[in-house]
């Protein structure tokens, strides 16, 4: 189905071992952008690499796409070594960088067809493929336009089309939706997920949007200071690294009693009483809440109100690093 | 919502031999030419620019230096204009690459299987196409005005310019890659080199009347030999030693330019 060989089931699409990358800034300063990342991605996975700006996400992606060479460690992408067989890797991957892949002075259709020709399609096939992608990504009427005349959302969809024209089995997306308004982001994601279905692609993307990693990716790799600090499904990360939070309101006199009961819940931690509210972290909130309510009733503690707060990936990041990803996301520029 | 059905393709596989460099060069060159050819208005203006300079500067030259040239001012000056057009066109071309660095288009092409050297050579060769058009227009317009066309010499002259221009264009791209993180530096360096090269080649004004040190300096300027060779060729003298030196200068410039340019291109993703 794809232009390049389809990888067989069970084969590892990406495998890195202790990958590092240093940037020499000056004679006395070296930035260790990536400090030993080991990562394995299997066919069909949708992996989001999440982390604050400067965490090493983009540097990692640039090594995996053969743009820069690792300082140490090894990486195999689509079956080939990124350092010793970069041209084999390039033939097999699609890449959507942070910038616009299509030249601004070019016409939309020209660039898309040209991209197909670059990957070895004959002109007729390239035109056919370009037409299909323009149609699928709602760019059909813009084929004759100059790229610089497109809106931000249209240009980003064109970037995705450029990355897909040779139907790669592995697609890298570097911050695909950064700078788009919420509507355009949702729209872009619709397209990416649909393309994924139709091409049976493996997708690796970087993002610093928490909600995006949360809702789109099946697997979230959290990166900070050039290292992987967590790697699981979004739900898995939340359950093990943050947990749900129960917030229960009672009459002031019953606070101590309720805190004791809350502390007895399975896996309970961080029992905090503020005013007339007791909050507690548990692994499974929806199951723990009725348990607590029942225990309170048995103990004669009338409950006025109760809520379950599901954690966000920001809670996960906060628990892992002591910092919030939200504060960080406007920090120093990414490399 | 539309569904996407993939068309059947004849496809490259891992067993395919290494890529054809000429094909890659042609792809890059065609891509570079598209915006030029798609925009007839700026193409037209670009084509007549040398004529404007010729019309304004030629008469002044003839007036102030009349004694030196006699009636042959156009015979002397038309080859100059062609060299100047090459010089300006190719030395500024790195700016296009700088723009593609900023937008991300260059990065996209670095991830494709295109060979790194084709990204440079294809771009450098592209400059020769508008240049050839400009040359044809200049010659066609000037031939009725006391310009004596020797077709054989003119064609060899254009070929020599093309070789020289590929070298100069490659240097311009190498410069663009070197300064890509401080892009304003491109114009500073380009201008710093452009004017001394131009004046010390005897392109616009003859150096014979200048001070001795300028004549010595011009001996170290490859462009001087190209200008001399062009004048000789356009006067119909194909076998002169000046032509030979012109080829040496052009080929050395091209070889150095391509070497430096390709090396820069290989590192351009860092």
UniProtKB/TrEMBL annotation, chain B:
TM annotation in the entry: 41-61, 73-99, 128-147, 153-177, 184-205, 244-266
Membrane topology annotation: Multi-pass membrane protein
Where would I find the ABC transmembrane type-2 domain in this sequence?
Answer: 41-268
Entries under InterPro entries matching the protein: ABC2_TM, ABC2_TM_bact-type, ABC_2_transport, Nod_factor_ABC_transporter
Biological-process GO terms, alphabetical: response to antibiotic
Q: Which GO terms describe its cellular component?
A: ATP-binding cassette (ABC) transporter complex
Alphabetic keyword roster: Antibiotic resistance, Cell membrane, Membrane, Transmembrane, Transmembrane helix, Transport
Q: Name one GO molecular function term.
A: ABC-type transporter activity
Where it mainly occurs, coarsely classed, is membrane
The family note in this entry says: Belongs to the ABC-2 integral membrane protein family.
Q: What is this protein called?
A: Transport permease protein
**Which Pfam families does this UniProt record tie to the protein?**
ABC2_membrane
* Coiled coil stretches, renumbered: none
Where is the protein found, in the record's own terms?
Cell membrane; Membrane
